[in-house]
């Protein structure tokens, strides 16, 4: 089968919030049945953007269960 990214390739995205919003739970979910599931998610935060590469604060690392259901993680 053809894959766009090899397993183990680091993938990331940035979510920008317009206002200061307290976030207490992260709920990552992938419902695409023809792609791989999440295994480990590392979350970083910062109060300003753009950010220098070393300006992110490591918030937590979440380990996902082998499941197609959404999983909630307390931050």
TrEMBL record:
Subcellular localization is given as:
Endomembrane system
User: Per the database record, which ranges form the SUN domain?
Assistant: 2-74
**Keyword vocabulary terms for this entry:** Membrane, Transmembrane, Transmembrane helix
Gene Ontology cellular-component terms for this entry are:
cytoplasm; endomembrane system; membrane
Q: Does the keyword Transmembrane apply?
A: yes
Q: Does the keyword Membrane apply?
A: yes
Gene Ontology BP annotations: protein folding in endoplasmic reticulum
Annotated TM spans: none
- List the signal peptide residues: none
Alphabetical list of InterPro entries matching this protein: Suco/Slp1-like (IPR045120), SUN_dom (IPR012919)
The identity of this protein, by name, is: SUN domain-containing protein
Record organism: Tuber magnatum
């Amino acid at each position: 089968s053809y894959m766009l990214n090899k397993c183990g390739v680091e993938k990331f995205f940035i979510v920008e919030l317009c206002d200061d919003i307290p976030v207490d739970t992260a709920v990552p979910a992938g419902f695409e049945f023809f792609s791989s599931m999440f295994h480990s998610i590392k979350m970083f935060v910062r109060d300003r953007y753009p950010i220098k590469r070393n300006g992110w604060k490591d918030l937590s690392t979440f380990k996902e269960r082998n499941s197609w259901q959404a999983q909630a993680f307390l931050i």
